[in-house]
Amino acid sequence: MVLLLIAALGLGLMQWHQWQQQQQLQQSQSQWQERLAGLEGGNKELRDDLRAERDSREQRLNRLASRIEGTRDQQSEMRRQIEHNAQALLGLGQRTRTDWLLAEAEYLMRLANQRLFFEGDFSGALAMLKSADQVLAETDDVGAYPVRQALAREVLALRAIDPVDQAGLYLRLDAAIDQLEQLTDQTLTGYRGITDPAAQEDQENADNPWARIVDTLREIVVIRRMDQPVTALPSPQQSTQARLHLRLMLEEAGIAVLRRNQTVYERSLARAEQWLQQWYEADSPQVRALQNTLDELAQKQIDPPLPDISQSLELLKSRIAGRLERTEETRDELEETLEDTVDDSGDAQESDS
Fold this sequence. Notes:
Layout lengths: L1 H91 L4 H23 L2 H16 L7 H15 L6 H14 L29 H12 L15 H24 L2 H18 L5 H14 L12 H42 L1
Helix pairs in contact: 1-7, 2-3, 2-10, 3-4, 4-10, 5-7, 5-9, 7-8, 8-9
């Protein structure tokens, strides 16, 4: 009778505890639903941001296309001007090897400026400036010294730029996206593993009747602390939504790397780190590895400031213009001398007659 009474009392207590836990689980479920609604709202905001960023990129691409088209027109005009000048010099018979070398150096320097300004390719611009300096070194024109001096400063400024490994950064971001699959439900914040509330059976007391009674009561009655809230497990849908949100942020950072957009790159990585800290346990090895990767990527500079390399080009243009002006002066002097010679010859013939 005593055992039956104890068992009945235990069953009553167990039902009362179960009813209390059910009420707490319902409250926790409501909280998770509210959190999921906030997550869906955040996803909508991210999609709106991505749409706005895409529209902005399209506008920038259109403007860049217009500028490139204008540059092509300018290049065509410059080619026509160079051809005209070359033909004029050839017609005078005064075109020397130095003039051709200066024209070649000017062409290389123009390409270097365009490559740096429109494409941000400082490596290509550096190679073209070095080639232009080698061409100028072959000339016998002492007036090219200030041009080479400016070229030396510009080459040094380009060499001081820290190279950006776009492909490497993009591949590291892609690897971080693949690593998101390792963020399982167990790494989410608030996850609690389900453990067996019964104590392990002591093998030494396996034949003890009192121990068997205690074990039986433990199987029937589970005592829990009521001052600790019961946390509901995150649902698979919430885990998927969290990984999808992180994936979108990292993909946005990858696009920013290709576009050399430092602002969008830093913003995307900062939001990804904030999201990772909010939704995942920091002591998880997978989360810690991803956090370290994001910290390293956030320190990268994808759009370094570019120097002005147009001074040498302006000096060379002035030098070429000066040589052309002197050539025209020489031509005028030759024409005047020829006219004077013809006049003197005519006067001499008239005197002899």
